[in-house]
Amino acid sequence: MPDFIFAYHGGTVPESPEEGEKAMAAWGAWFEAMGENVVNGGNPVGQSMTVTADGVAGDGGANPISGYTIVRADTPEAACEMAKGCPMVADGSGSVEVAPIVVM
Hints:
CATH superfamily: Dimeric alpha+beta barrel
CATH architecture: 2-Layer Sandwich
Distance between the termini: 15 Å
Number of helices: 3
Helix content: 25-40%
CATH topology: Alpha-Beta Plaits
Number of strands: 6
Number of domains: 1
Oligomer: single chain
CATH class: Alpha Beta
Structural class: alpha+beta
Strand content: 25-35%
Strand order of the largest sheet: 2-5-1-6
């Protein structure tokens, strides 16, 4: 069964400890629902930098990632179905980019 990376875009920072607890509970419930398909829960990430032949831009690029997770699924479609349960997708604050991890 192949692995897929979920690259998160967007999301919001909780404005209170209560909102933070609610957000963490939603993520925990989603991860629990995916069960053993979660290979690596990943983490949020800080401000990204874009490196090109012209230099380095520290603005995060056109669509900076805000975190990642690695999951295992039978098909790309199955991975996308799992991604639909992401709390950021559910509340409309972000999106999930799904890509297969190519083993070389």
